[in-house]
Every structure is written in C-alpha cells, then in structure tokens.
Predict the structure.
Amino acid sequence: MTAQQRRDDARRAIETGDTWAAFVVRTDFGDEEAWREVLAELGRPDGEVDVAVRVLDAPCWAGASVEEVLTAVDDEDGPAAVFVADRHTMGSPVRALLAVDTLWEDESALDPVYYQELVDSPAPREFRLRPAAVPSVHVNLELGNLGFEEFAAEAAEGGAGVLGAA
C-alpha cells in the first residue's frame, strides 16, 4: 500500500464517525489474543469519561511506523493525539498503547532563541498508556484541559513509564 493510500484510508476512518472519538491505529497483527485484550480494555475506560473510540484495524497498516501514521492523520481538523497499537503494545503485560502528539509546531517562524530551547530540550512527542486511559487522555487533550507534555510527564513518573499502570 502506498503512503497516499494509507493517508486516504486514515482520513476516511477519521472523517466517518464521531469527530470527538479517540483514534487508535493497529500496526501489529502478530497476536490476536493480545489485540482482543486491548479492545476489551478500551471498552472499560478509567474514570467517568465515556467517549467513543475509532479503531483502524486493517492489515495494510501492519508494520507502519509512527511517522507513517502521523503523515496519514496530519490534518488541522484531526485528533490532538493518535494512539498506536504496535509490537510493544502486544508484548506489554498491560497492553500499553503508544500515544503520539499530532499537533506539530511550525518551527519556520520561531525566534532563534526559542528554537534553540526546543533543540536543547524538545517537548515529548509520545508516551505509553493503558488502553483504559485513552478516553480520558483524548478528551482532556481535545478540550485543552491538559497538554500532551503533562500526560507524558505523568507517564514517566508512573509505573514502568506507562500512564495508568499503578
């Protein structure tokens, strides 16, 4: 499948359905039992947040890199983060998904002093989280209640570097 076909596939998945839904892309197809566990936990969200989760579960995404996923969902109307079910997810005891920040900052117009700070200490672009934490993280990012960096810091402080893995 070409990069353009993947982008089209992802765009259709994003555009068809609830725009407030979290977006999960499956890129590893080696363990169906692990995948069923991920789906089951996605259906049991932590806390009181009840939000739909759209899942892109198509074998054409097998082995896709994070960059390929980001390229496919890159759109100003797209989600603030995408959640990737990769090889690590399937091998993790808590089935930790990879949360990836989709809100890229245009660095071309940045002040050089500010840009140097970004180079010296870039903001985290990803972290791991339990599937049940996806709805809460998604809603808080979309509403702007918390920033991606705050969730990444919480994950780094949490058990095994995974948000929600107490």
Observations:
- The first helix runs from residue 3 to 15.
- The chain has a mean pLDDT of 83.
- Residues 156 and 165 are 11 Å apart (CA to CA).
- The first strand starts at residue 22 and ends at 26.
